[in-house]
Design goal:
- Helix 2 packs parallel to helix 4 and helix 3 packs antiparallel against helix 4.
- The protein has two domains: 78 residues, no CATH class; 27 residues, no CATH class.
- The protein has 115 residues and is mainly alpha-helical.
- The protein contains six helices and no strands.
């Protein structure tokens, strides 16, 4: 029996390697922001090509790694500022880090909403 035929799809463990590789890339992105331009040229295309991975846990880890790349880029570009302060804020509360508008609410409004 040859090595290739020893494992079928059900016994395939290569997904662990793909998931671990993605975690390693995420760590590199977080610890080496000075290499962001290189990461966009090399890592990002490879991650995007893997968005359709058949293993759900690998898919999640790949999305997380790509999100980490974008988050670190945002932090480097904004220099540690929050998104709301970098954009000058929005009347009534600014912009949340996820991109949605935040509303300032007084404690009285919160109590009224809870009632």
């Amino acid at each position: 029996m040859s090595w290739e035929n020893r494992y079928d799809d059900e016994d395939d463990t290569s997904w662990r390697v793909r998931r671990s590789s993605s975690k390693l890339l995420s760590t590199l992105i977080q610890t080496r922001p000075d290499l962001l331009s290189t990461f966009y040229k090399t890592i990002s295309p490879a991650l995007i090509a893997r968005f359709g991975d058949r293993e759900e846990t690998v898919k999640v880890e790949i999305w997380t790694t790509e999100t980490t790349l974008l988050r670190v880029t945002r932090e480097e570009v904004l220099g540690g500022k929050t998104v709301g302060s970098a954009m000058g804020g929005v009347e009534g509360g600014g912009v949340s880090p996820r991109g949605g508008l935040k509303r300032k609410r007084s404690d009285e409004q919160m109590l009224d909403d809870d009632a």
